Amino acid sequence: MKVSAFFHYFDNLIFNGTPFIKETREQVFQRVIGKLLADKDAQSLRSWGNVRSVYMNNLFFAGQMSYITRPLGFDYGPIPFVGSRTSICQGDMWEEEGRIESFAPSWRFISDMTNDTFYSILPGGPSGRRFSGLYNNEVDKWLNVEYKEIVAK
């Protein structure tokens, strides 16, 4: 069983407390973070995105032969992986049979049912053909949380 299956126990301890710990949640966080950062230089700390990043791999090559596919633009990245199972932008990374697996929300869709306009963005682009100008033309918009406005007629 994966460790992520046990996160709810930690969530319960953090948010509901326990009679075995006499400190408040804030006191525990301050103490633990203080110990973690006590002998660290601020310049040596890496951001979450530098520690955990992913590639959008071409489906056909599935991340294989990355020494060829990445320079030729089949794969896009590295992209900082924002979040984990316990954060708002949920996702997860793990190693399975020697390769890194991941999942995260990708398609974004916003709609107000009182009108005919909706907003959407997909990671990548509308074409699956690498040498099309539409292959990954929307990745930057997706990363910057920009949307396309679409009006249904």
Mind explaining what this structure looks like?
It is a single chain. By secondary structure, the chain is of the alpha+beta class. 24% of the residues lie in helices and 21% in strands. The strands form 3 sheets. A 3-stranded antiparallel β-sheet has the order 5-6-7, with no helix packed on it. A two-stranded antiparallel sheet has the order 1-2. A two-stranded antiparallel sheet has the order 3-4. Strand 5 and strand 6 form a beta hairpin. It is extended and about 60 Å long.
Please outline the helices and strands.
Elements: H1 7-16, H2 25-37, H3 48-51, E1 53-56, H4 66-69, E2 76-80, E3 92-96, E4 99-103, E5 108-111, E6 117-121, H5 139-143, E7 148-151
Antiparallel strand pairs: 1-2, 3-4, 5-6, 6-7
Domains counted in the coordinates: how many? 3
How many DSSP helices? Answer: 5
- String of helices and strands: HHHEHEEEEEHE
Instruction: Report the biggest beta sheet as strand number plus sense, adding barrel if it closes.
Output: 3 strands, antiparallel
Strand content: 15-25%
Q: How many DSSP E strands?
A: 7
Shape: extended
The order of strands across the largest sheet is 5-6-7
Mean pLDDT: 80
Low-confidence stretches: none
Short description:
The chain has five helices and seven strands. By secondary structure, the chain is of the alpha+beta class. It folds into three domains: 3-42, no CATH class; 46-102, no CATH class; 106-148, no CATH class.
Name its key features.
single chain, 153 residues, alpha+beta, 3 domains, three-stranded antiparallel sheet, two-stranded antiparallel ribbon, 5 helices, 24% helix, 21% strand
